[in-house]
Structure formats: structure tokens, C-alpha cells
Design brief:
Structural class: mainly beta
Distance between the termini: 62 Å
Number of domains: 2
CATH superfamily of the largest domain: Acid Proteases
Shape: globular
Number of helices: 4
Largest sheet: 17 strands, mixed
CATH class of the largest domain: Mainly Beta
Strand content: 35-45%
Helix content: under 10%
CATH topology of the largest domain: Cathepsin D, subunit A, domain 1
Oligomer: single chain
């Protein structure tokens, strides 16, 4: 009888395992913002709920084109410590489980630099229903933003209050800042990595301060085999600099012309940028209703007409193409962090 009972128990256990639900990716909403005015400036953001034990609950720019997190001092530290000339500490400080060091660092982006102090803390992203918390990771707590060419200090409500740079390659600030994805564990049974599903083509003008910007469940942490099979996968290109990271070979075609150079798929860029100056006699941006074709790795093809000026523009001082937010409205992107691969899914 004991043997029969044991066999029955084992059978029930195996049956339960067979019926167990497979692990699902963790979903994080992307907050969509369009600035007032024309041409439209459209940004994808991810809400930071907390840093350490400090409640933040504010969206920061979600950027697949950089690696590392920066966040305004006033969002995470007592106001009396924050000033345009630096964070007012003389020795390492622990505030709300945020370890703020005295080491000043600079994170360089396309046209401007961010100055701040190196800090370490856990970070929670998402919303009340869908969120994920990293292990302790490095963060730049910034006290000013400066245009590189002019030295002008910039800011105001239309500038992001920080950046969540998730590029799987490269670093910022001399190797001190890394992607927060390096500090996240996927659900059991899923591969390390993340993917983006389409953001949608409808945008509304809104301000984060009034908590009025819409969101879409588009960022997914952890990759299962079935999902990955829906993407065209290629190896990630080598990092060319610590600013522009995670390149692949791709070509942009328009008016019988082409630009085939290393290409970055960049949620942090509101436009599509073609490397180099425009052809002689041409404008700095393509006219409305120009048919543009992007041929990516594995010959994935995406065709679209320009809707406004400048939506596709020339970047005279660049040697790379940047594929900005328009791509992410209708298409998918996947990063397999274990195998060092990037995947593309063209929806339309």
C-alpha cells in the first residue's frame, strides 16, 4: 500500500509539473510624451518608482542608444543638497539607502553633457501593477546639463529629468555607468534580455508634471524561445564609442539614394538621422511624403512615408545612421543579453 501511495503521489507531482504555466516576461509600461509645438518631438519614457528607499514616481527618458542611468538631484536628494554648481556634500552620504559618493562624473550624450555625482542604489521601474527592482547599481545624480558647443546650462520642463539608458553594449562616464538591465534577473526559465513591442502611432501632447501622459505595456523583461522565434536575430555589432552603442549594418534608401553605414536603433532619438551632409542643393531634411526604406540585417525591410519636417534629417558630423522613435511605433526590437544578439520584427 505504501508503494502504491508513493507512486500515486509521484504521478500527481509529475502531472502538476506538466500542467504548470510557463514563465512569462515581466512587463513595464512605456510612457508616451509629445511636446507642445511643431515639429512634434516624441519621447518614450519609463517611470522610475523609487531609488533606494526614496519614492520618485516620475518618468525618465527610455533610451536604447545609451547605457546608464542619470536622474535629477532634486528628485532623489534633500533640496538643500542640490545646487547648479554641485551636490553639497564633503564626504560620502547615505540618504534613503542611496549611497552618494563625492566622485564627480560627466556623462556625454549627442549634443550635451550631464554633470553629477556617482551614487549606488536599487532602482524600481514600472507602475503599481507592473514593476521590477534592480540590485544595487551605479547611478549619476546630476546637478546640471550643459550644451557641449556653447557651454550653456540647459533645463526646464521640456528636458527629461533623467535617462534610463538600456543599451546592452558599452558604458558611460569612463566605464562607471552601465545598463540597468545588467542588474535585473528575468523570471525563472527565461533568458536574460528584453524586448519592445510596438508603441502605437497615436500620440498626445502632455506634461509629466500633471501625470497626464498615456502609457502602453511595451517593455518586456526576460525572453522565452517562442517569442524570440518571432524576431530576425543577428549578432550585436561592436561598440564604436561609449556614446553610440550596439550597432548593426543597415541601409536607408530615398529618392534613388542610399546610406549604408553602422546603424543604431535609438528610442532616445525623436527623428531618423542619416549620416553625413545632404546631397548638393538638397535641404537638411527630407520633404513630407518622401518614401523611405530601411533594409536592416537579414534583409528585414520597413517602408514608410515622411509625415512632417524634419522627421528624416541629415547629420553632417555623424558617421552613423540613427533610427528613432518612428520605428518603434509599429515594429519590435529584442536584445538577447546572454548571446549578444539583437532581433528585429517588422509589423508593417
Amino acid at each position: 500500500m505504501r508503494v502504491a501511495a508513493l507512486a500515486a503521489a509521484l504521478l500527481l507531482a509529475f502531472s502538476a509539473l506538466a500542467c504548470a504555466e510557463p514563465s512569462k516576461s515581466l512587463t513595464i509600461p512605456i510612457v508616451k510624451q509629445q511636446y507642445p509645438g511643431y515639429p512634434p518631438v516624441r519621447l518614450a519614457n519609463v517611470r522610475v518608482l523609487s531609488l533606494g528607499d526614496r519614492k520618485v514616481d516620475f518618468p525618465l527618458l527610455f533610451d536604447t542608444g545609451s547605457a546608464g542611468v542619470t536622474i535629477d538631484c532634486n528628485l532623489v536628494l534633500p533640496w538643500e543638497l542640490c545646487a547648479p554648481d554641485g551636490i553639497k556634500i564633503e564626504q560620502e552620504l547615505i540618504s534613503d539607502s542611496i549611497r552618494v559618493t563625492t566622485r564627480r562624473i560627466v556623462a556625454q550624450y549627442g549634443t550635451y553633457d550631464e554633470y553629477g555625482n556617482l551614487a549606488y542604489a536599487r532602482m524600481s521601474l514600472g507602475d503599481a501593477a507592473h514593476n521590477v527592482t534592480t540590485s544595487e547599481m551605479p547611478v549619476l545624480i546630476r546637478y546640471k546639463k550643459v550644451r557641449r558647443q556653447t557651454g550653456e546650462v540647459v533645463g526646464g520642463p521640456l528636458w527629461p529629468r533623467g535617462i534610463v539608458g538600456v543599451s546592452p553594449l558599452g558604458t558611460l562616464a569612463g566605464g562607471l555607468l552601465h545598463s540597468p538591465m545588467d542588474y535585473m534577473d528575468p523570471p525563472e526559465g527565461l533568458a536574460r534580455g528584453f524586448y519592445l513591442t510596438p508603441l502605437g502611432e497615436v500620440w498626445v501632447t502632455c506634461m509629466h508634471e500633471f501625470d497626464e501622459c498615456p502609457s502602453v505595456d511595451a517593455l518586456h523583461i526576460g525572453i522565452d524561445a517562442e517569442t524570440k522565434a518571432q524576431f530576425e536575430m543577428v549578432p550585436l555589432g561592436a561598440s564604436r564609442s561609449e556614446h553610440y552603442i550596439g550597432f548593426v549594418d543597415a541601409c536607408l534608401y530615398w529618392y534613388g539614394r542610399q546610406s549604408c553605414v553602422p546603424t543604431l536603433y535609438d528610442t532616445g532619438n525623436s527623428t531618423i538621422a542619416i549620416a553625413g551632409p545632404p546631397p548638393e542643393g538638397a535641404d537638411m531634411a527630407l520633404p513630407i511624403s518622401t518614401k523611405v526604406t530601411l533594409v536592416g540585417p537579414n534583409k528585414t525591410k520597413w517602408e514608410f512615408p515622411t509625415l512632417y519636417v524634419p522627421e528624416v534629417e541629415f547629420a553632417p558630423n555623424s558617421d552613423i545612421n540613427l533610427i528613432g522613435i518612428r520605428y518603434f511605433e509599429t515594429n519590435g526590437l529584442l536584445f538577447d543579453l546572454e548571446l549578444g544578439q539583437i532581433g528585429f520584427r517588422i509589423e508593417r
